[in-house]
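Retro notes, structure queue

What went well: the backlog is down to a handful. What didn't: a couple of records were mislabeled last round, so from now on we paste the full input next to the output in the thread. Example, using Negative regulator of flagellin synthesis from Castellaniella ginsengisoli:
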Amino acid sequence: MKVNSTSSNPLLNGVTGGTRSETASHAASGSAASGRTAVDLSPAARHLAALNGSGDDIQAGRVQQIRDALASGELKIDPSRIADGLLASVRDLLK
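Corresponding output:
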């Protein structure tokens, strides 16, 4: 079976976003017999895929600062602050 990428998102490689009527017409025309499968993504799924593809959640400059600080030995790690943050997170989850 040949899979073609229709998205820059590696999680969606080979997934097409046709409508239900397109999917039905493909199945009726014999594409199912040829081994091809069509997938219909809802608008919400397309929106989530678009959000997943954006790299806005990573601050490359900040990551590089942390890497540099680690390499030079300047980064101070406070275990009690980490523990306090984890405990606060767990408390929020248990509420």
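Agreed that this is the format going forward. Reviewer comment attached to the example: Residues 10-53 form one domain.
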